[in-house]
């Protein structure tokens, strides 16, 4: 299992492309700069199968429609954020003066945790709310990495001052769902560089005591 981090959009949000030996790929959080994302897919002869969203804040969905339309693939978001794609007030684009974003509804919804297969690629869905009500992380046991969205960062955690944010819930999500993963698991965050579970257990100042 291979992955590539592609910083995109006005906030440099990390879009991730993950692919298998058959070159089937999944696209996570296409936040903008769709031409860069599409160029990478073309250069590597990848076959997109689905778009998966860790959550539906504006900086994670800026290129959603372009990518979805280009490849005619389904987009998935947690059911708790079903309305966020359509509503600039919920996805935050209304407040940050970077352009209002309205997307079509998701093609399907994430409703539970557990192992799921998308286009021949198996991953485990972990519900990690706190940054937003429907935040999820995607764990690839075979590849030894987890896409954590805006839950856990290198030396930091997600903000919780946006609508639906809950600091205590976020800390619990990180402790119960992410820090319980193997210590050498690579954490692919929504912003910034990758880290590891053991690195954050030992050095993240927001996780003291864990």
What features would you describe in this structure?
By secondary structure, the protein is an alpha/beta fold. It has one domain: Ribonuclease Z/Hydroxyacylglutathione hydrolase-like (Metallo-beta-lactamase, Chain A). It is 20% helix and 30% strand. It contains five helices and 14 strands. It has helices spanning 34-43, 64-71, 88-91, 167-178, 197-203, and strands at 2-8, 13-19, 24-28, 47-52, 75-78, 108-110, 114-118, 121-127, 136-140, 145-149, 152-153, 156-157, 186-189, 195-196. It has a six-stranded mixed beta sheet, covered by helices on one side. A hairpin with a 4-residue loop joins strand 2 and strand 3 (24-28). The two termini are 30 Å apart. The model has no long low-confidence stretch (mean pLDDT 95).
Task: Output the keywords.
alpha/beta; Metallo-beta-lactamase, Chain A; 6-stranded mixed β-sheet; 20% helix; globular
Write the topology of this structure.
Blueprint: E1 2-8, E2 13-19, E3 24-28, H1 34-43, E4 47-52, H2 64-71, E5 75-78, H3 88-91, E6 108-110, E7 114-118, E8 121-127, E9 136-140, E10 145-149, E11 152-153, E12 156-157, H4 167-178, E13 186-189, E14 195-196, H5 197-203
Parallel strand pairs: 3-4, 4-5, 5-6, 10-13
Antiparallel strand pairs: 1-2, 2-3, 7-8, 8-9, 9-10, 11-12, 13-14
Task: Please identify which CATH superfamily we are dealing with.
Answer: Ribonuclease Z/Hydroxyacylglutathione hydrolase-like
> How many structural units, i.e. domains?
1
- The CATH class designation is Alpha Beta
State the distance separating the first and last CA atoms: 30 Å
Name the beta content range: 25-35%
Helix content: 10-25%
Q: CATH topology, anyone?
A: Metallo-beta-lactamase, Chain A
Q: What is the CATH-assigned architecture?
A: 4-Layer Sandwich
Strands, count: 14
Biggest sheet strand order reads 1-2-3-4-5-6
What would you call the structural class? alpha/beta
What's the multimeric state? single chain
Shape: globular
**Runs with pLDDT <50, length 5+?**
none
Order of helices and strands: EEEHEHEHEEEEEEEHEEH
- The averaged pLDDT comes out at 95
Q: Work out the helix count.
A: 5
Largest sheet: 6 strands, mixed
Protein name: MBL fold metallo-hydrolase
Pfam family, one: Lactamase_B
InterPro entries: MBL_Glyoxalase_II, Metallo-B-lactamas, RibonucZ/Hydroxyglut_hydro
Cofactor: Zn(2+)
């Amino acid at each position: 299992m291979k992955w590539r981090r592609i910083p995109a959009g006005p906030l440099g949000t990390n879009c991730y492309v993950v692919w298998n030996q058959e070159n089937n790929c999944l696209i996570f959080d296409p936040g903008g700069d769709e031409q860069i994302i599409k160029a990478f897919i073309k250069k590597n002869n990848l076959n997109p199968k689905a778009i998966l969203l860790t959550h539906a804040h504006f900086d994670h969905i800026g290129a959603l429609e372009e990518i979805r339309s280009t490849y005619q693939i389904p987009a998935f978001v947690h059911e708790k954020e079903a309305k966020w794609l359509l509503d600039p007030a919920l996805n935050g684009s209304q407040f940050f003066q970077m352009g209002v974003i309205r997307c079509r509804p998701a093609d399907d919804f994430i409703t539970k945790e557990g192992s799921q297969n998308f286009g021949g690629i198996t991953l485990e869905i972990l519900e990690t709310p706190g940054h937003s009500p429907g935040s999820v992380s995607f764990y690839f046991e075979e590849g030894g990495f987890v896409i954590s969205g805006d839950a856990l960062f290198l030396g930091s955690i997600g903000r919780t001052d946006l609508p639906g944010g809950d600091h205590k819930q976020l800390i619990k999500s990180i402790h119960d769902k992410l820090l319980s993963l193997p210590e050498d698991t690579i954490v692919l965050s929504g912003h910034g560089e990758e880290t590891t579970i053991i690195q954050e257990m030992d050095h993240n100042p927001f996780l003291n005591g864990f």
